[in-house]
Amino acid sequence: MNQPDALLALVIRQARSLGIPLAAKIDPHVQINTRALRRFGRCLREGNYYRIELSARLLSGSEAACCTVLAHELLHTCYGCMNHGTRWKRYAARMQAAFGYPISCTTTDLALGTKAPAAKYIVRCTVCGKSIPRYRSSPLTRHPERYRCACGGTLSVTKEGSL
């Protein structure tokens, strides 16, 4: 089990040692999100105060995976870096060169070495067979007849466990 608060403090020290201008006010306690299924982390800005949130799935992953996501989110606290623009990418490259974190705009379970959650619903096209996993109930999973695949085919939904 990873210690996210200790890892956050470590990554903050690492970024500051490289001269990366992180925000002055960052909550030292990482919030754990037990509902996040596809997102690994999130940087929340409240005025000039920042809070970092991690998916509970990362807690059982490697320390390196946690540090990578924490570094990604911490870079969003830098001025002009709430998106994945040029400045954010420059800071990410600096962190990767110094500490080996494979920071990118998006990542996968495979890249982080975590296990992907099972989709609760699988939406399939009856014409081309395209499969679209869905993790929560939505208008698409409740009323697939209202939607069409890009190929023009109709959609059907299968619930997990009845595959």
UniProtKB/TrEMBL annotation:
Q: Which InterPro entries match?
A: SprT-like_domain
Please name the GO terms of the biological process aspect recorded for this protein, alphabetically: response to stress
Q: Which residue intervals define the domain SprT-like in the entry?
A: 5-158
Protein name (Swiss-Prot/TrEMBL)? SprT-like domain-containing protein
